[in-house]
Structure formats: C-alpha cells, structure tokens
C-alpha cells in the first residue's frame, strides 16, 4: 500500500463512491478505503438479520414470520430518484446505469387536512385534484400553465415578471393562490424542506417544478424511480466503475492515522502508509473538521399491508408539509417499497419515515406519519447527527461530504457531490457522457463485432 495516489477516498457511502468513479474515469489514480467490510457506509442496505443485529443487538435474529433474511435489502437512508434529476444524469454520464435495474414508484402523495392526496404536477391534474376547491383550481391551472410555458430566454413567457429578482411569495400572490395550494406546490412538487424558499428568487422554484413535471412525464405514475434490490446497489455500481478505470478498493481497513504535511496527505492503515495529493471522506473520518448542524430521525417500519388510501400501491412517497403537522419547521417524509423491488418478502412492505429533529422527543415528532401507515409490525428507530465540513478543503486538501439529510430524493446528495467535485478540480461537473466512457463503449462494440 506504500504508494502515491492522486486521491485517497475514505468511506464507501454513495457520495464517496460517485466521486471515486468520476475521478477514476478522468484518469486519476484513486485508492478507496473503508473501515467497514461492506459498501455503502451510512447509505448501505441491510439484510433482515443485519437490521435486527444493528438495532436489537449482536446475535439477534428476525422472527421466522418475516420470511428469509436474504429476501430483505433495507435502506438505512431512504431516498427515491427523480427520473430526470441529477442522479440519473450522473448515472448516464458515467454509464453506471448499465449495472442497475429500476422500477417506477407507483405514486406521490401529500397530506392535507388529515387526508393524503395524489400530488398534481400539471394544469390538467390540478383541475381534477381534490386538494383544491372549485375556484382555486382555476388559479392553480393558470399558475401551472405559466410554469410549463416559462422559458428563461423568452421574455414573452415571463408574464411581466423578473423571476431572478422577484421572491416566490410574490409570484404566488400574483396568481392568487391560497396557503394550502402554496403548501403542496412548495413541499410536494418543488420539494423544499421548509418555507425559506418563499423569500428567495422565484426562478429556482420554477426550475424545480419544471424538473418535477419533466420527471413525471417520463413514466406517468410518479416522477420517481427506485433501484431493484435497494439503494445499496448504487455505491457498489459506482465502485465497480472506479475499479474498471483503475481505482483500488480496500474494505475492512481501519484508518489509524491521517496526517497533512509536505503538501501531501498521509493515510496509515495496519502499519502501512499511502500518500495522495488530496483526500475525500465522509464526516465520520474527520470529527475535528466538521460541525454538527442538526439531527435526523428515521424509522424503518415493516408492514403487512400497503398504506391505506394509496390504491393498494406497492410503492409510494408521502410528504407531510410542516404546516400540516402542527407547529413544525420541517416536513416529514414517508417512502414505501415492497417485494416488487426485491427488498422484502412477499406480502411485506417497508415504510421509512424521516424528518429533521426539532424537539427533545424525536420519535413523537413522527406520530403524524405513523398515523397514516396502518398497523406497524416492527419498527427500528435511529437518530443521527447531521454534520457538515467547517472549511471547503481547498487549503488542507481534505474534502469532506455532508451527512445525508431527511429529504426523500437525491437532489441535495448530488448537489453536494457536484460542489466537492468543483472544489477538487476547479471546474464544474458537466453531466454529459465522458469521452473516456464513449471510447470504452466503442472499443467494447468493436470487440463484440469482431467476435461475431
């Protein structure tokens, strides 16, 4: 291991594996290490016995009524993938998409007045939605039509507004939308965690709505897709990409010491030291270089039936906007998957509830979501700290990712990856297929052609 690398990556969470893959494709010499014996780190997917051991203690086995442990692949950090979002662009950019299979999530719902309703994302859906009264529907239809038609470089579509300056609350006011309609647009379509966006320029919200609608158009059922066999497949697939392009992977490697001198990073494991120009790591490897900025609670719930009032859907997302859950500042998210995604035994459903902690009794904060789930057979609850780096890493060459937030999608995850990539390389990540991958695809086609 006593070698010099361009980059040493510590931890095999999804963010670290994406960065490792991106750098390897660009020809960088990458060493990737993890203290654990499995891929995924914080974002791993566990078998049922692993889940019981993690939450109930070593040696604890799942009851036989749950079926075979091997049938389960339960995400520790649940998220869905927007079908036109950043993660899909990264999967296509790196050709990692060929290692994965996806299934469309059956529906996206939002809580309003103690009921859940399917989220409308177009002017047509808005007219049919029970979320709004008769007159409100026409205001919403006009607003959705404006968003669908809006083009940044065509002033004729701007309706006399400068969205780069005008706050979103003023745009809503112009269309006469009421508080409940604004609530589901901001939280269930634009996917904001809280209401801070209302004071910010409207262009970001409009772009988020367009992304949601574009994702919805792809598969019609919902804007989300999910990988078969769980999210743990994602870091493994990016790790495979890195290995194809020369990346070296080492699991079960305890990190004994990391020092920064001579303009290099020195990482020691089991008595051997490797050096690199820079290091990328998840927050757990450098507790002295991160700050705690919140806590996230997640509850993994095993159910025997689909969520009530979701048309017996095998998979759904439910967003509970903050205002629908009492005096909260953050939304609550529910993601449901089932045996159709090969993540649990037939007849079982996995519902994972998550939110940003606001009180001294975190689990009580999840009660509005629990009330929607129906009978819960088994529940595993965790509260984790949310960390972010103190510095941007450009001085000490130590680039640290943020912890995973409570959102039910990967947009913030990918934004963090793109930010780290820019800090490392000094350039934006352009999400088109990389020339090195195009070359490899061509060589592979030529090889297959000659064999035939």
TrEMBL record:
Protein's recorded name: Rab GDP dissociation inhibitor
Gene Ontology molecular function terms on file: Rab GDP-dissociation inhibitor activity
Family in the record: Belongs to the Rab GDI family.
InterPro entries the record matches: FAD/NAD-bd_sf, GDP_dissociation_inhibitor, RabGDI
Pfam families for the chain: GDI
A GO CC term assigned to this protein in UniProt: cytoplasm
PANTHER family: RAB GDP DISSOCIATION INHIBITOR, RAB GDP-DISSOCIATION INHIBITOR
GO biological process, one term: small GTPase-mediated signal transduction
């Amino acid at each position: 291991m006593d070698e010099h690398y361009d980059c040493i990556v510590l931890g095999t969470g999804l963010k670290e594996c994406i960065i490792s893959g991106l750098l390897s494709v660009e020809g960088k010499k990458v060493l990737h290490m993890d203290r654990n014996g499995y891929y995924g780190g914080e974002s791993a997917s566990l078998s049922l016995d692993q889940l019981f051991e993690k939450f109930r203690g070593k040696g604890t086995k799942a009851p036989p009524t749950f079926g075979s442990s091997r049938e389960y692949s339960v995400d520790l950090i649940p998220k869905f993938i927007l079908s036109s979002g950043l993660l899909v662009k990264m999967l296509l950019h790196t050709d990692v998409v060929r290692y994965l299979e996806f299934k469309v999530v059956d529906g996206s719902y939002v809580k309003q007045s103690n009921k859940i309703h399917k989220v409308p994302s177009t002017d047509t859906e808005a007219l049919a939605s029970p979320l709004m009264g008769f007159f409100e529907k026409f205001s919403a239809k006009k607003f959705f039509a404006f968003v669908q038609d809006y083009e940044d470089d065509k002033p004729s579509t701007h309706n006399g507004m400068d969205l780069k300056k005008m706050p979103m609350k003023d745009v809503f006011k112009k269309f006469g939308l009421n508080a409940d309609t604004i609530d589901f647009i901001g939280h269930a379509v634009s996917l904001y965690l809280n209401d801070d966006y209302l004071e910010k320029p409207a262009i970001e919200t409009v772009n988020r709505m367009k992304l949601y609608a574009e994702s919805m158009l792809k598969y019609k059922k919902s804007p989300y897709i999910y990988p078969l066999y769980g999210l743990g497949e994602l870091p493994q697939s990016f790790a495979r990409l890195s290995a194809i392009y020369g990346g070296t992977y080492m699991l079960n490697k305890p990190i004994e010491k990391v020092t920064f001198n001579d303009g290099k990073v020195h990482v020691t494991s089991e008595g051997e030291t490797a050096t690199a120009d820079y290091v990328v790591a998840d927050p757990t490897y450098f507790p002295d270089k991160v700050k705690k900025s919140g806590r996230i609670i997640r509850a993994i719930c095993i159910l025997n039936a689909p969520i009530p009032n979701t048309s017996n859907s095998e998979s759904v997302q439910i967003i509970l906007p903050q205002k629908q859950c009492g005096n909260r500042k953050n939304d609550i998210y529910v993601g449901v998957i089932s045996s159709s995604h090969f993540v649990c035994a037939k007849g079982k459903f996995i519902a994972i509830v998550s939110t940003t902690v606001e009180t001294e009794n975190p689990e009580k904060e999840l009660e509005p979501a629990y009330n929607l789930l129906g009978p819960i057979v088994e529940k595993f609850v965790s509260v984790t700290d949310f960390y972010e780096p103190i510095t941007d890493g450009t001085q000490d060459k130590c680039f640290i990712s943020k912890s995973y937030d409570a959102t039910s999608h990967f947009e913030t995850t990918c934004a963090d990856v793109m930010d780290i990539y820019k800090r490392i390389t000094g350039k934006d990540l352009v999400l088109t297929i990389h020339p090195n991958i195009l070359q490899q695809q061509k060589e592979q086609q030529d090889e297959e052609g000659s064999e035939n």
